[in-house]
Write a structure and sequence with these properties.
With about 290 residues, this protein is α+β, with helices and mostly antiparallel strands. The chain has eight helices and nine strands.
Length: about 290
């Protein structure tokens, strides 16, 4: 029997307005969050700082975990080009957001081949890039932002469209214009914890073309069940936005599983040469 319909006679005023105001859904975003017990992670981070003198942060830990997750499942490291063609990246490149101008502006440091870099390499690269951006020494950032500062508002949208075509559709590498190829890479990671944000989800940038955005929120004491007992533990909540054209619920779960393993078992973070062997063995034993 064919499905039949009849008018919804008692629709509220809001529903009538909403039906007329919005178009059909076309956004492929899906959202998910998970809480991680970082009791051991915080101890690991403190030992790492003491043993190496490096400023290890939660952002570095999460970046390393995300890089390894996408390396484990390379088919998820993809982008959509030409209106529907799926293409896989050959490397895992991360874009870590950096606040500038006293928090008034936002840029980011791109870490290329992140899956092949150890924890120390990631720390060094992010610290160096963030410092250059904040001091006005990053050429790509200065050129792109300088252009938009002086551009009339009515030209901003056409320029963004052209930038998307050049860097994502045509894959042109134009660093002299401040336009690197595939500018955001595999995933965008933003730490909103310093702002006291508990739970939030980031919207996809049309120019990003990455399969995942990840917000790192504030580590907070929360109720946690461990060994059948209710305890208060430091908990990190990660909030992800996925591109459903590339990542579905099953594959999002696979990514989440690897990220959880690395963050909650921090000894895994030292699988590559990162600190002297004796320190690495000690860290693994204590983690």
């Amino acid at each position: 029997m064919p499905t039949t319909f009849e008018p919804l006679a008692n629709a509220s005023t809001f529903r009538r307005i909403a039906a007329a105001m919005w178009r059909q859904p076309s956004d492929p975003s899906i959202y998910g969050s998970m809480d991680l017990d970082v009791t051991g992670t915080l101890r690991f981070m403190e030992r790492y700082r003491q043993q190496t003198g490096r400023r290890l942060t939660v952002t570095h830990v999460v970046a390393r975990a995300v890089a390894q997750a996408f390396a484990r499942f390379p088919d998820l490291n993809a982008k959509v080009r030409f209106g529907g063609r799926l293409e896989r990246r050959r490397t895992v490149d991360l874009f870590v957001s950096v606040a500038t101008d006293g928090g008034k502006d936002l840029s980011g440091a791109r870490v290329e081949d992140a899956a092949d870099k150890d924890l120390g390499d990631i720390i060094t690269e992010l610290e160096s890039r963030a410092l250059d951006i904040r001091k006005g020494k990053d050429r790509n950032y200065e050129k792109s932002r300088g252009t938009f500062r002086t551009l009339p508002w009515w030209l901003a949208r056409p320029l963004m469209w052209l930038t998307d075509v050049l860097t994502n559709e045509l894959h042109l590498h134009l660093p002299t214009w401040g336009l690197p190829r595939d500018p955001f890479g595999t995933a965008v990671i933003t730490n909103v914890g310093p702002f006291g944000i508990d739970t939030a989800f980031a919207p996809f940038l049309p120019i990003a073309r990455c399969p995942m955005l990840l917000l790192v929120t504030e580590v907070k004491p929360r109720a946690w069940v461990a060994g059948g007992r209710l305890e208060v533990r430091p908990v990190l909540r990660l909030c992800a936005t996925f591109d459903h054209r590339i990542i579905d619920g099953f594959s999002a779960g696979r990514i989440a599983s690897v990220v959880r393993d690395y963050v909650e078992n921090p000894g895994m973070l030292l699988d590559q040469e990162d600190v002297p062997v004796t320190q690495r063995q000690t860290a693994r034993a204590q983690a």
